[in-house]
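User: I want to check something. If I give you two sequences, will you return the structure for each one separately, not as a complex?

Assistant: Yes, each is folded on its own. Here is the first sequence with its structure:
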Amino acid sequence: MNIIVIGLGQVGKYIADVLFKEKHNITLIDSDAGVLDEVGDTIDALTLVGNGASAQNLALAEVSSSDLVIAVSSKDEVNLLGAAASKQLGAKRAIARVSGFDIWQSSQPVSTGLLDIDLIINIKMIAALEIVRLIRSMEAILVEVFANNEVEAAQFRVDESSEIINTPLKDLDLPGECIVASIVRDEKLIIPGGEDIITADDEVFVIGSINDIPRVGELLGGKGSVKQAERVVIVGGGEIGYWVAKALIGRGVDVMIIEKDRERCVYLSETLDKATIINGDGTSAELLSEEHIENYDAFITLSNDDELNLMSALLAKAVGAGKTIALVHKPDYGQLYEQIGIDATISPRILAAKHILKYTREGALRQVSPIMGGQGEIIEIAAEEGSNITRKPLDKVGFPKGAVIGAVSGSDGVYIPRGGDTIKEGSSAVIFMLPKVRKRVLKLFQSG
């Protein structure tokens, strides 16, 4: 595909890197020549210095022959105008990323049809939705969704009190349609076999039906696992905090919001009548103690400052709060936060980039989610008409070692395929695999 990327911030760099590795033809537009030079050291792409909303610059980038324009600069106006102008100048499709809520009329993270732009993705609403998913699967560190929200992949840390420890995977009885797809032990990713066992402090990736994954979390979490979040604290009553609170209240969760700005507190109290609003500092150990944070199932920090989010979450841990989730604006901080005790982190920029990349997939491949710094990846792929995967049972098709089909979604619903099963044309398979076997897996699912 011929793809133009407007804006080389965290989102744009991530997208450009993935597109380059997938061998697309890329043109990069940014107003900062230094940023383009930096990216150009690692990515083979055409570059153009200038405003991505300028019709003149878009014409220089040959937008009329582009298959897709992705506008992801830090300015909503540039993204919207750039994407709209691209469509008028002949681009086949255009996607714009927005951060503000002032133009947003939808309660969903993706909107279509505005200004003739094919997709407008709200970065803050995507982050809010991901946080709600993590609260829904209380024991999960990471959650990814596939197959139109029918299949979920979740990462769990195994508690020493879990009853599944030292049980061979072939004897493991997980709830519903779920399977252990990989094990992380000592920072190394393992694609396990039936004889492998899970040990305390392992992290496991489980793939299965979206309704069954939370029950797996209870099993892996052991005696101290929380079945369902009933009380949640949110530090930061901004736009993300508002949408998270609204969604959780709709699920019957008792929500308390701690917000420093008094005027914002007034607004929150008027619009979220079932939430408890506290005007105060979420990094105050005294305040957290006074509000008995130890009695809450989850503690979420959502300020615009990464260091404040970290400090607040660590203080909450110290006073006995349940699951801690921190918003991370600099993606490189995420792994560090988890290493020092934060249960889960959310990077709005990386989430937005992953969401946008779904729409760059052609043919059978529908979604790619790298994990563990690229040690492994989870893909969603459709079985095309005439593909090898549809001709024989799985145990006869030569499925490569280093890959496992976690779930299949199709006309028969969501199920875990067995060796004697044959995947039907049009069904989607969610596969956990090592990158080195990706080409062999793709070949099985593609026609011809």
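And separately, the second sequence with its own structure:
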Amino acid sequence: MFLSFKYNLMRAMENNVAFMTSVIMMIFNNASFIIQWITIFSLKEVIGTYTLNDVMLFWALSSGSFGITHIFFNGITRIPDYIEHGKLDAYLTMPKNVLCQVATSSLEPSAVGDLLYGYIALIIFNFSIKNLLLYSILIIFGGLIYAAFMVVYYSLTFKYIRSNYFAESLRDVFLNLSLYPDVIFSKVLKILAFSLIPSGFAVWIPVYMLLDFKLKYMLYVILFTIGIITLAFYVFNKGLKNYSSSNLMDARS
């Protein structure tokens, strides 16, 4: 998997100017939302129990987790295309796990900007050595949860053609829930955020830990991460049994 990442990064950096432009523009795109929140908090000092610095933790964790997923596991976004057009053939002939090979088959350059922005936001608004170390651990869990979540819903394409549109809608809901404080959402959405659309485990609980670390919160995140990754492998492998080859004479480049 790390070899795949190495070669993906080498390919992405073949054009250094395009790569750096993509990264920098993503950082500026994310940073523009800081102005929005500064304006909101100039009118109201606290939202629920959250200050401006607290809210920026949601953005830092969401951006960092998103960056981790699309740097290391961007191939997950191609699962529907591979299934619908019979492009999994090249991965089925490999000795390594099919899902791992597919997940690590590509890298999104702009995601590097998301990852860097997460660290920038943390350093500006909530810097401490403890927060920096804890944040670095939590975005790995957040990235794995987000990746596994996408695998579960994209794998529906094995059975239902074009179900990727439904999966992408859920992905957008996941991201929108993770970017904003939990206090602004209804009880129904909060239940969804800790079940079918697990933004709560990927971002909300990590925010709680950065604000007030409790071991039980870390255990919740670890156990849920293990559970959803297990579910992702199960759903993908079960769907793979229904996969129809296109007989393409192709190999992974």
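Because they were folded independently, the notes below concern the second chain alone. DSSP finds twelve helices and no strands in the chain. The chain has one domain: 2-240.
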